[in-house]
Amino acid sequence: MPLRKLSYSILLVLALLSAVSVYFVAQLRFNYNFNDFYPAGDPDLDYYQQYSGRFGNDNDYVLLGLEAPAGRTVFEPQFLTRVDSLTRFIQARPHVVHVTSPTNATNPVVEGLGVFNIPYLHPEEPARRAQDSALVYRTLGLVGNLIAQDARAVTILLQTSPNLSKPPGDSLLTAVRTELSRQGVAEADYHLAGKLVAQSVFVDRLQRELMVFMSLSVVLVTGLLWFTFRTWWGVVLPLVVVLGAILWGLGLMSACGVSIDLMTALLPVMLFVVGMSDTIHIITRYVTELGYGTSKRDSLLITLKESGFGSGLSALTTSIGFFTLMTSTIRPIYNFGLFTGISVLLTFVLSFTLLPAMLMLLRKPQLRIPREEGHSWDGVLGRMFRTVLARRQWVVAISALLLIGSVASASRIRINSALLDDLSKNDPVKLDFRFFEDHFAGVRPFELDLKPAPGRSIYDLQVLRQTEQIESYLTQEYGLSFVASPVTLVKSVRKAFNGGLLEEYRLPDSDAELKRLVSRIKLFRKKPEFRALVLPDASEGRLTGRMPDVGSIRADKLNADLRQFLRQHSDSTVLQTRLTGSANLIDKNNENLTLNMITGMSIDIVMVTLIVLALFRSLRMTLVVLIPNLVPILIVAGVMGLAGVHMKVSTSIIFTIAFGIAVDDTIHFISKLKLTLLKERSLFKAVRKTYLMAGKAVIVTSLILVGGFSTLIFSSFDGTFYVGLLIGLTLLFGVVAELTLLPILILAFYKHRPKEIRQPVPALGG
């Protein structure tokens, strides 16, 4: 039989393509690269990459915090001996460039032609403990940076190789943890923070959560499919189609060299629940025709003819919803939008090739539910339709009130992000980071590029004094808890040449004194802190610091005030400055979030408008379709505002994705309505018939979508949690609007012209 041979050929081709996909999926890797979240193509990113090439990245470090035993201080000899042992151990590890610790911090003193580094702490000499502790508290840069203000904890700072990847980073962290355990340090008594720590934790959790989400989704969807179709093939065939699409999508992603990150980890779950729509519409229509006694072959042909057009349009609108994320300058969001959008189209292809081929080769199913009992859905949907129309004034009034309240509440949404946005406030990793904010300088890096005006060097006295003025503002007004710059170096050298006395830690009084100091600075140039703060030719300097992670809203205000201060108090003929750094780049994403979201939504709305205009050639019908899909979006925006959920990188994708998915059922509904109007003169009867035909698939697909997205609420990442919760709520509100507002609006505003519509429309044959 030709159709059977065609089915076998289709299955063979698809099997070969799937085998290729398996090969590429086997090579897929998980990755969390902090740098990927910088705004691609931004001039500030190019500037920072050049800047970090000269001075190094500002986040290539790990902070190790050690708490002193209960009732004791960090100045106890036994504790300091342990700190010193750990410092030496870490310094010997691969990929560790330099270690800064309370036990290797020294006060340099120049005598004759030599430099003597006198340690601040002497754990082997207990009699000097009081003297050492007094000196530490008098020395700038130690308390609050290496030693806590209450003397109950210390920090060891590990400077690592640039852009250290996960495997060597994990090895380093494991070695440190193992040594801590060997020395008897309990997990509760030490804290780790830094990019390497976040990178390690995020990737490990991504792997674990991806398996959990997929398992929960499979169980949930399997249950809903069984409840809907009550046949083994009604469960297995949709699963095969969607899992095949996921395999192809991940294989394509791997072939393009893209790894799974915080965003693309959502692709399998997203595709699993979204991809079910077409298969459910096909099987629902197929079962309906079989129930009317149509042969298997004719049922399949009718199904493909009537569902193909609507499914094609819905796949297009859903994929566009994801493709619009490519307007983002954030690479993980761009990749997520691109490959999920492609995968949605691949699902459509498999739904109309693999699914029909399998249905064709299976024997005609014996329906477990007889035809006369199979129309219980018609009874339920018929009563719903009558109730909605009888209460249309209430439906419209309630919708209007919800809309007004939601718009008012949505105005409270703020765009705000922090460095560890996606971890909940009680997450152990976030608590470790907070430890350094509560007891030390914090974890948020700050960078200011210093360029002397032409004809000057970084060691020019006027340049240094202007830099010192900026330092003073940053510590007193901006909130930096730790700061280092060329001023720090010159002050340190001056102190060293004056016997290491603390009162000599200041800038020179004259150019002549500064000239003498600069000529001797070569004695210190090999020290890592010198290389990291001034270029060898003194043509450029770096002002670096750390502070608590105040969030992007507060950071934007601080940066605006800083720029105003620099304009008013800096002389560009002496020193030119530019704010840069990784935290500054992450903050810049906020400037693009709103624009990207508006752009994505606009593209979605324009595409849906064009589709409806092409189908009905009616602006009124366009509004009829858009309103039930925009209302849920606005309601969820109101929920966000009411709950205080901030707009950030992870939540910015919610509205474009939700609109693209929600409009899917509307497209199915109006495409069926278009076909029904070809045979039915009465608009009321056509809408009612479409309501009964499409209602079951709309409800089932919406339940699967809501249920599938609800699995994401079990994520330990706040961003993933809110994506699941808010998209699920949008789709839930969407199906209610679909079954209430949509028929009311169609009957109220669409002007039906039977004579024109009864003419055949060849384009609908696809």
Automatic annotation (TrEMBL):
<keyword id="KW-0812">Transmembrane</keyword>
<feature type="transmembrane region" description="Helical">
    <location>
        <begin position="266"/>
        <end position="287"/>
    </location>
</feature>
<feature type="transmembrane region" description="Helical">
    <location>
        <begin position="691"/>
        <end position="715"/>
    </location>
</feature>
<protein>
    <submittedName>
        <fullName>MMPL family transporter</fullName>
    </submittedName>
</protein>
<keyword id="KW-1003">Cell membrane</keyword>
<feature type="transmembrane region" description="Helical">
    <location>
        <begin position="210"/>
        <end position="229"/>
    </location>
</feature>
<keyword id="KW-0472">Membrane</keyword>
<feature type="transmembrane region" description="Helical">
    <location>
        <begin position="336"/>
        <end position="362"/>
    </location>
</feature>
<feature type="transmembrane region" description="Helical">
    <location>
        <begin position="394"/>
        <end position="413"/>
    </location>
</feature>
<dbReference type="InterPro" id="IPR000731">
    <property type="entry name" value="SSD"/>
</dbReference>
<feature type="transmembrane region" description="Helical">
    <location>
        <begin position="236"/>
        <end position="260"/>
    </location>
</feature>
<feature type="transmembrane region" description="Helical">
    <location>
        <begin position="721"/>
        <end position="750"/>
    </location>
</feature>
<dbReference type="InterPro" id="IPR004869">
    <property type="entry name" value="MMPL_dom"/>
</dbReference>
<feature type="transmembrane region" description="Helical">
    <location>
        <begin position="649"/>
        <end position="670"/>
    </location>
</feature>
<feature type="transmembrane region" description="Helical">
    <location>
        <begin position="308"/>
        <end position="330"/>
    </location>
</feature>
<dbReference type="GO" id="GO:0005886">
    <property type="term" value="C:plasma membrane"/>
</dbReference>
<dbReference type="Pfam" id="PF03176">
    <property type="entry name" value="MMPL"/>
</dbReference>
<feature type="domain" description="SSD">
    <location>
        <begin position="239"/>
        <end position="361"/>
    </location>
</feature>
<feature type="transmembrane region" description="Helical">
    <location>
        <begin position="623"/>
        <end position="643"/>
    </location>
</feature>
<dbReference type="InterPro" id="IPR050545">
    <property type="entry name" value="Mycobact_MmpL"/>
</dbReference>
<feature type="transmembrane region" description="Helical">
    <location>
        <begin position="593"/>
        <end position="616"/>
    </location>
</feature>
<keyword id="KW-1133">Transmembrane helix</keyword>
